[in-house]
Design a protein that fits this description.
single chain, 553 residues, mainly beta, seven-stranded mixed beta sheet, 40% strand
Amino acid sequence: MRKRISLLAVGALVALGLATTPAHAADPVFTLAGPAGIGLRPHPGQRGEPQKTSVEFRIVNDSTKTFDRPSTFTIDLSGLKGIADVKLAKDRGADCKLTAAAVTCKRWALWTGETTVVNLDLSAAKDSKAGTTADLTLTGTAEGATFKAATTKVRVGGPDLVLERARLKAEQKPGDKQNLSIIFANEGTDPVNGVVLEMRTTHGIDLVEQYDNCSYSSDDTSASQPWNTGWTTVQCLLEGEYEPGAVYGVDGPLTLKAAPHAFIDGLTYAVYAAGDQPKAAKNRAPAAAAASNKLAAAKQAPKAAARSAQQTADLDPWNNIQEFDFATRNTADMVATGVSLKGKAGETVTADFGFRNDGPAYLRSGEDVARTDIVIPAGAKVTKVPAGCTGVNADGTHRDQTLGAPRYFCSTGHVVGEKETFAYPFRLKIETVVADAKGSITVGQRTPEGTTAQRWDPNHGNNKAAFVLNAKDTGPAPTPTATTSATPAPTGSATPTATATPSASATGTGVTPNGGLASTGSSAQAIALGGAVLLAVGGGLFLAFRRKAGGHA
């Protein structure tokens, strides 16, 4: 009997211990996410048929482990009856089913990071009325996990800012000015309380005027964000109420000026309801104006339209933004830097190989702007290679081993600033003394065999310089090649391309947006060309200035 009582007591103690432990103390908590609100174009839409608005719901797994148990996600659609019609989008996300009452999705595992649960296409129901709202809430369940729900407020109607495309000249020359005319309308059903005008320009385009109600900032220039290098962002708050059905024009000059270093450049400009604008870039600062000078917008063509006191999301954010590419008649002189070294057999020497851009233009490309081709002289062996450089065979073909190669290709990355110098530090061991041993350093456009001169470079004769070991004379002299003038190009509009992965370089790969400007004067050769050198022809200079609304390129 005592033994049985003892076992019962132990069981009771175990049960008591379990009861005092939180039921889900170790369960992971996952966050569900979606837009705070969306607006639907009132039925039947501008083109006589329902206009869909897409909604994406996501799950965030902030842990370092995959949750490997099945999960079920549900969206109750009962509140949308008579307000909105729902369809599963083609890229729906998880394994989902749609009924009149709900959307149900299954996931067999939750990977780390942020992933899509479901994409829905919503459109206003036939008999819906502007101003009606409903909540769309995503919930989740899984054994051993907790989910934080996400709710999106759906509303029929809303504002719709539409930006008109300005008439700008694509081809220009340094110093040219032109006015950026900003005209926009509110084609929605609701007014907008305050509009933010955002303008983003690359390094070669300046905004002449500054206003008190604008902030000016430069974007991230780190190696991980090569496309942001050199961009300047201006955001201006235009106060007031912008009525539905009305057209507005910015009342104040906005002058674009091509800088002395302009070449291939881009502009994006957009209008957003105040509070919906993209996050401001780094180094944000207000204008330094001596007197009160504010930018404003004036009504141009008011029309009668329905009104609502509650502001919601823009009905079509894609028509809030415009973009423009510029091609400036300019040149950039790439000059290879000669090197002379001396040393005894067995000694190790170091040297910087590279080039400088004598401008006046800065360069920006969807791929590496330029390649430096380094031929190693006889008697030397490379023992250390900098980042951004690759060893190749003497004929330029692929080589598995980087060290000890007879030839090296080094890449600049996406941007080369005006008056910028690239130097790639190498270490070489002199194995055998060879008097007056000669190699070379050449800069130009990348080719499978090495490099070729750029068409926008006005002086091909200085693209190549000597690399001499144990020279008999006082030092190296550039190895001349036939001097070729830059070739005029028929057109200069930039072509968008996918962003390429940047190559690291040893020194000086950044662009200082407000750095020293090159002289606006042209060389004798450039004058002979009549300034007819355009960009992006034969040199692979092409840019990606495209950007989704609400994001930075």
